[in-house]
Amino acid sequence: MYFAWLENPQSVHKSWDSFFRKASEEASYGSAQPQPTSVARESRSAVSSRTKTSKLVEDHLAVQSLIRAYQIRGHHVAQLDPLGILDADLDSFVPSDLITTIDKLAFYDLQETDLDKEFQLPMTTFIGGSENTLSLREIIRRLENTYCQHIGLEFMFINDVEQCQWIRQKFETPGVMQFSSEEKRTLLARLVRSMSRFEDFLARKWSSEKRFGLEGCEVMIPALKTIIDKSSEMGIENVILGMPHRGRLNVLANVIRKDLEQIFCQFDPKLEAADEGSGDVKYHLGMYHERINRVTNRNITLSLVANPSHLEAVDPVVQGKTKAEQFYRGDAQGKKVMSILVHGDAAFAGQGVVYETFHLSDLPSYTTNGTVHIVVNNQIGFTTDPRMARSSPYPTDVARVVNAPIFHVNADDPEAVIYVCSVAAEWRNTFNKDVVVDLVCYRRRGHNEMDEPMFTQPLMYKQIHRQVPVLKKYADKLIAEGTVTLQEFEEEIAKYDRICEEAYGRSKDKKILHIKHWLDSPWPGFFNVDGEPKSMTCPATGISEDVLTHIGSVASSVPLEGFKIHTGLSRILRGRADMIKNRTVDWALAEYMAFGSLLKEGIHVRLSGQDVERGTFSHRHHVLHDQEVDRRTCVPMNHLWPDQAPYTVCNSSLSEYGVLGFELGYAMASPNALVLWEAQFGDFHNTAQCIIDQFISTGQAKWVRHNGIVLLLPHGMEGMGPEHSSARPERFLQMSNDDSDAYPVSVAADFEVSQLYDCNWIVVNCSTPANYFHVLRRQILLPFRKPLIIFTPKSLLRHPEAKSSFDQMVSGTSFQRVIPEDGVAARAPEQVQRLIFCTGKVYYDLVKERSRQGLEEKVAITRLEQISPFPFDLIKQEAEKYPRAELAWCQEEHKNMGYYDYISPRFMTILRRTRPIWYVGRDPAAAPATGNRNTHLVSLKKFLDTAFNLQAFEGKTF
Fold first, then answer.
1. 20 to 30 A Cα–Cα from 268, which one of 57, 118, 311, 538?
2. pLDDT tens digits along 552-611
């Protein structure tokens, strides 16, 4: 650059032009001589001046490289471990350019004599404050103070210059970490509440109980409160938190400010499961609280989302709930609602859902405009040394994927922690991007209070036993500097002691025991109307023909002028228009009408998943793409009515675990929305099994957490192989909580609704578009919310027989849990020799084969549309209607899969074990389907032959 400037000063930035001019003047100053008469002498003088200038430029560039080295690698030598025995980056190696002053100078070809020279500071540093030049000695001192003390900064990988400059200014500017006496006193008081009294109080009262205390990272409480205070100051009104169990009780007490008596009463050994869900331990429960933020005097709503021991599973749930709250408030920029996630170091590095969640952070339909992540870095997992638990230097390295700055901080320096958290909150509000605060701390006890850590970590815990608690260290510091007196400190402790003791006394009152205190989304007004409980009935789900026709006309047209669609799509739209004329619908149109009718009624609909906009099987086409204008799209569903609710349909990242968790959280925020997640193939839900097992199947039982999320799982044996065939209905049915041996006794007027109210979720496999339409609408019209699992078809999407008439969807019609035989056999039931029960697509194979064999009078076929909760009442009616018929269950799935193991004992309960229910289907197998077309057809023919062989079960016993 210098040589380019010599040839043309205009070829470099004006700041470099100025710098080179000044350097040249300094190099020639003092060596000026009378004008030489000899040309040779003049030439030597020019060379000498040029050499001096080059050296000066090289030295300045070396200093700039040194500054950059601190900015990039200074965190590797920062003093982050409060125990002083480990390296936070798992490596004791110190970069060669940052070892000692002498080594640094040598690395950059500088001399000790250069230490007192003044150097021009580059525009990429703020260590000079208002000064433009500093001595090299002072430059190094300030860089050491900024980058190598108790804060380690990782941000130079961010590819945005403005963002890097912002961070540099926040940390490099001299004097930025100055706290007033009042701020220090507030910090001390928060540490007192966090550590000295709350954790100690629990330990004294319940010494033999697991508490998963925060001891060793008590500074997390003031850290969280600082983030909330700063965010409230910048306009945030709602903060949604997710965290594992360590420190959860402390956060409930001292951050969310849950009544202490409510926490203490959860330790009552006589507490019944009815008082706390299924008895899930207190350090997994959630909470919702509206209060005044005493620092800003503004209202703030805090929600802590319930979380199982699958530590990071809550991450996408929190993000989904945050997104929903922002959506309902019209908060597109995240200026009113934000999320905070607390992580453990081992889980943050080890669990893939963290990466999946980060990858949602900037996607348009999933962004929450930045999350503040707090990592409680114990420097150990349960008993596993981090050197055996991760391959990355830091547990936080996964955050680099989204260019999130990472602030490592020694948790035994409370003021450094508070400053870092304040900057993190500002970053999130300024740039609407994620940020990570890594609290490098320790765990004073084992994994829980009953655990013995010395078995596996003797050296670490010897040091921990000697470690002075952070509260004492900070109190001693403030007392020594005169900020507080010893008496004031002791009074602060005594004050909180009294608060805890009084709350402990109140906790004995059984009247305060109620699970409503542990809800993270209370849904006010949903369960009651004018103060009275809702009626346990469900209205008919049909709608007027005018509405059906209107929705159909929009679904078969393009609402925007001049919008060019694909020619193949034009044929699809014409086909829809023809169906509307004939008063019929296929699967896609039935779904369109269900969504559209709910939008008309003010119900927000959100459909998410891989390729859902078009549909995996190219059947949906809810988003139209202009074939001539890039990125110009149209969503006709949002053009149905002038004042309709909004429809959101969004292709997700190639994620199941993270995205399903996100949609679950979205559905958690409000009961007045239909939130659906569709798997690309039903089989793919297995990578989201944790969300299904821990939140969807069990959420109400564990946390009294109603949720109406809908899972759409394409399912069906089509000869496409084991990866694209089975949504594994047996797994969902095994987790259903209805009793196979007990015929339900309904206490409500509506047997169907009574069953639904008692179940943990609803499992259906619809065989008609009309029934699919009705079950989606019923999901919203029910007076409560339950998860809905729908096994959706593939071949039925275009099957000529899988169509429904408007007559099955108009006002007065409803979802049919069971669709009975309505053909010839139903008119003479006493002549029927076999009654086949089935569900889903196989019905159409059975009807075709029955017709081929001419057995319409002898064989009846009944469809089970709602599998769980099992429709005992309707199945009983069907069985009794055909008293002389053999009963068979036919499924296309293998015998050890599908529905048979679920339905068989329930049939026995209905029939009082007087009649067998025979199995017809494929033999047991390890894989759920074959990928060989011929093998598929052979096995299909085999079980269809059995289904209609009226002598097949003769001589068999049951």
1. 311
2. 999 999 999 999 999 999 999 999 999 999 999 999 999 999 999 999 999 999 999 999
Burial of 38 (0-12, 13-18, 19+ CB in 10 A): exposed
Place domain 181-518 in its CATH homologous superfamily.
Answer: Thiamin diphosphate (ThDP)-binding fold, Pyr/PP domains (3.40.50.970)
Residue 303 CB neighbours (<10 A): 27
Q: Please check the confidence at residue 456 and state whether its pLDDT lies above 50.
A: yes
The CATH number that domain 828-947 falls under is: 3.40.50.11610
Burial of 704 (0-12, 13-18, 19+ CB in 10 A): buried
Kindly report the pTM of this predicted structure. Answer: 0.92
Asked whether 411 and 345 are in contact (CB, 8 A), the reply is no
What percent of the chain clears pLDDT 70, i.e. is strictly above it? 93
Taking CA atoms, 14 is separated from 10, 20, 122, in Å, by 8, 10, 13
Strands in 859-864's sheet, in edge-to-edge order, are: 818-819, 859-864, 834-838, 886-894, 917-922
- C-alpha triplet 179, 181, 184: angle, nearest 5°: 65
Q: How many residues does the chain have?
A: 958
**Gyration radius of the chain over CA positions:** 35
Residue 951 structure tokens: 């002598």
Q: Which amino acid is at 937?
A: L
> ∠ CA(325), CA(425), CA(662), 5° rounding?
35
C-alpha distances (whole Å) from 730 to each of 716, 726, 736, 894, 898 are 14, 10, 10, 11, 5
- The residue extents of the domains of the chain are 2-172, 181-518, 545-715+765-808, 828-947
Residue position matching structure tokens 């008590």: 218
List, for residues 153-166, the tens digit of each pLDDT value: 999 999 999 999 99
According to the model, what pLDDT value does residue 50 have? 56
Q: Fold identical between 181-518 and 545-715+765-808?
A: yes
In terms of CATH architecture, what is 545-715+765-808? 3-Layer(aba) Sandwich (3.40)
DSSP 562-608: T----HHHHHHHHHHHHHHHTTEE-HHHHHHHHHHHHHHTT-EEEEE
Tokens 């209805």, residue? 738
Separation between Cα atoms, residue 206 and residue 389, nearest integer Å? 32
Measuring CA to CA, how many Å separate 572 from each of 102, 199, 621? Answer: 76, 65, 9
